[in-house]
Amino acid sequence: MTKKIFASVLGCAALLLIAGCATTVAISARFPPRYAETADIRRIAVGGFNGYGGAEFQAALQAELFAATFDGRPYFTIVATGGPPDTAGASAYGREMGAQGVIFGTVSTDFNTSSYQGSEDRCVEWNEKKNCKKYRSFPIPCWRRNVDLVVTPSLANIAAGRVVYSSQKRASRSASWCANQSPSGSDLELVTSAQREILGEIRRDIAPYNTTLDATLKTRGDGLPTEIKAQFTAAVKAASSGDMGQACDAWTAINKASPRNVDTVYDLGVCAESAGDYTGALTLYRQAQGLATAPDKDIAASIARASDLAAARAALARTKTGKR
User: In this structure, which topology does domain 8-29+213-317 adopt according to CATH?
Assistant: First the structure.
C-alpha cells in the first residue's frame, strides 16, 4: 500500500483505550442522481410551481440548482425561469429557451396551531435566606405551531418529450411555546427550514453529488502475537493522526507476518476503499467476514457501503457527466 494514500481520519487519538471510542476514516464518495433518466440534463429551465408558496419555492429551487456542483464544478446551466407549471406548456417553453429539461410542479403549505397543557415549576416555600426550599408544578397553557410543506416536482426531458422524474416531497416543522414565552421559530423560519430539506432531496434526485461516508477502523488487533499487536496499535495511532499511508503500510506488513487476522484484513479493506479500490475493498471485507467468529456490524456495514460505491461508480460511468 503506497504512502500516497491519505484520508481524513476522525478518531480518538488520545483515547484509543477507552471502550466505545470509534476511529473512523472519511471516504470521499461520488453518487449518480437517484433518478437515472435525469443524468444528462444539464441545461435546465425552472418552470412555475402552482399553489400557495409556489413562487417562493420556484425562486429557492432556482438558487439551489444554480449552486449545485459535482466534483467541484458547477453542474447546471439555468437557461430560464418562470415557465408554465404543466407538462405540455413546459415542453414548449423548454424548446423555446433551448433547455434540455424543464422542472415544474405544485406546492402545498399548511399551517395549524394546537394547544396543550404544559407545566411550570414555581417556588412555594422559601428559607430564611430567601432561597427557595420547595417547588411545586403548576399547569400552564401552551401552543404548538405546525407547518407541513408538500412539493411535487416534475422534470420534463425536452428531447424525449416526456416527464422523466416526478416525486412527492414532504417536510414538516413545528414551534412550541407556553404562556409568557415567544414561539421558538416564526412561520417564515419554519417554512424556510422545510424548504431546505426538500430542495436537498430534489437536487440529489436529479443531479450527481459528492458526499463523505465514514468507515470504522478496527483498533484492537485481537489474536495477534504480542510483539505484532504493538505494531497494530501504532498503525491505528497513525491512522488516528491522519496518516493513512503509514497505517496501511503497517497493516500490509502485519498481514504478511501474521496473516488471516480479522482486524488486520478488515483495516486493509478500509485502506483499499479510501484509495477508491472498491473491488479490492469488497474482497478484503468479505475475507474478514469469513474469518470472524460472530456477525460483525462494522464488516456488514463496510460491505454494504463499498458495494454501493462500486455500483455508483458503474452508474456514473454510463453517463456523460460521470466520466473522469
Answer: 1.25.40
Question: Which tens digit of pLDDT belongs to each residue from 15-56?
Answer: 344 334 689 999 999 999 999 999 999 999 999 999 999 999
Contacts of 95 (CB under 8 A, 6+ apart): 158
Q: Are 262 and 18 in contact, with CB atoms under 8 Å apart?
A: no
d(CA 46, CA 69): 17
What is the CATH number that goes with domain 36-207?
A: 3.30.160
Which helix (H) or strand (E) covers residue 131, if one does? Answer: none
Which grid coordinates belong to 269? 479493506
pTM: 0.84
Q: Where in the chain is the domain with CATH 1.25.40.10?
A: 8-29+213-317
What is the DSSP code string of 233-293? HHHHHHHHTT-HHHHHHHHHHHHHHS-S-HHHHHHHHHHHHHTT-HHHHHHHHHHHHHH-S
Instruction: Decide if 139 contacts 151 (C-beta within 8 A).
Output: no
The CA distance from 161 to 91, in Å, is: 7
The residues near 93 (Cβ < 8 Å, ≥ 6 apart) are: 45, 47, 80, 83, 84, 99, 102
> How many other β-carbons are positioned within 10 Å of the β-carbon of residue 114?
11
pLDDT tens digits, 59-102: 999 999 999 999 999 999 999 998 888 888 888 999 999 999 99
